[in-house]
Design a protein that fits this description.
The protein folds into 3 domains: about 80 residues, Winged helix-like DNA-binding domain superfamily/Winged helix DNA-binding domain (Arc Repressor Mutant, subunit A); about 60 residues, Arc Repressor Mutant, subunit A (Orthogonal Bundle), CATH 1.10.10; about 140 residues, Up-down Bundle (Four Helix Bundle (Hemerythrin (Met), subunit A)), CATH 1.20.120.530. It contains 12 helices and 6 strands. Strands 1-3-2 form a 3-stranded antiparallel beta sheet. A hairpin with a 4-residue loop joins strand 5 and strand 6. Helix 8 packs antiparallel against helix 9, helix 9 runs antiparallel to helix 10 and helix 11 runs antiparallel to helix 12.
Length: about 300
């Protein structure tokens, strides 16, 4: 049986390293430009310790350079399509991804035990425990009775997708209207620039992965800016679910382009301090997204035409 070694980078370090690369690309940074630990910690709302660990991953992959007293600088920024390919993947992350794919595809039931995990994936108990811990930290699994683990609701079917939209339709406009709503205007400007650049691409060259990152980062920023901590935490958990891989139907690239324009209109109203108008436009944005999705009755029937992941 295979075991996970401690030399592999931790999944949260790898995830933040990927997001730092994507953020640098969205900001239009070039080789030689500095990356600030404090600035990155503020942007991603994480500790500087976690930022240092992620920067170490990038340094080991020769994507950064470091000089004592002078900090980190970009030495190379991979092309958009190579962002994820340039970083290693922790062994427990690979196994957790396999478990998640099997659950999404219906090859796993609603519960899982450590013995089933060991048997199915031919791994030892320490490795299985690490996988369960990672999936638990990602809020994919929760403790069940005895030795069982239960899968939490995922966006793995059309009914769940409809529930997701209803949830977001209730809370995201309210987040914009919350007392003390306070967006990071610098991050908002970076997102706006990234979206405007994305819209310069034709349908044939439209970058799907960049759209997905910009889309989720935008909705995460709305949640993080919310003055109500309960709304903020609920929305951030839900956006974490949206970051997981899924097997849901596709929509046309035309819809993704229009969704990007809707994001830009919401950003414009936020920057103007027009929270009520921004909330109205968020409701419209989510309703238009819902209108483009196949109905539950059509489950399993893919849409025709140029297909892209759901916004």
């Amino acid at each position: 049986m295979s075991e996970i070694t401690e030399k592999k980078p931790r999944p949260n370090h790898l995830e933040l390293a990927r997001r730092i690369l994507e953020h640098s690309q969205e900001a239009g940074l070039c080789a030689g430009e500095a990356l600030s630990e404090q600035g990155l910690a503020r942007t991603f709302q994480v500790s500087r310790t976690l930022v240092r660990a992620a920067l170490k991953v990038l340094l080991e992959q020769q994507l950064l350079s470091h000089q004592p007293g002078k900090g980190y600088r970009l030495s190379n920024l991979p092309a958009e399509q190579a962002l994820h390919a340039n970083l290693p993947q922790a062994e427990e992350e690979q196994l957790a991804s396999s478990v998640l794919r099997d659950r999404m595809a219906g090859r796993l039931g609603s519960s899982l035990s450590i013995s089933e995990l060991m048997r199915r994936y031919q791994i030892g108990r320490p490795a299985a425990q690490k996988v369960l811990t990672q999936l638990s930290e990602s809020q994919v699994l929760e403790r069940g009775a005895g030795q069982s683990w239960l899968f939490r609701p995922l966006l793995n079917n059309l009914a769940a997708l409809e529930d997701s939209l209803q949830f977001r339709l209730i809370l995201e406009p309210q987040a914009l209207l919350s007392a003390n709503f306070s967006p990071d205007l610098a991050r908002l400007a970076l997102l706006r620039d990234g979206m405007q650049s994305l819209l310069n691409h034709s349908i044939e060259t439209f970058d799907i992965q960049l759209f997905r990152e910009l889309d989720i980062s935008f909705h995460e920023l709305i949640a993080q800016s919310c003055g109500n901590h309960f709304i903020r935490d609920a929305l951030l958990h839900h956006q974490a679910l949206r970051r997981l891989p899924n097997l849901l139907p596709m929509v046309s690239v035309h819809r993704l382009q229009e969704a990007t324009r809707e994001h830009l209109r919401i950003i414009e109203q936020i920057e103007r301090g027009q929270s009520e108008i921004a909330a109205d436009q968020m409701r419209l944005h989510l309703r238009l997204s819902a209108a483009q999705r196949p109905q539950t009755a059509n489950r399993g029937v893919p849409q025709t035409g140029t297909a892209r992941p759901q916004p």
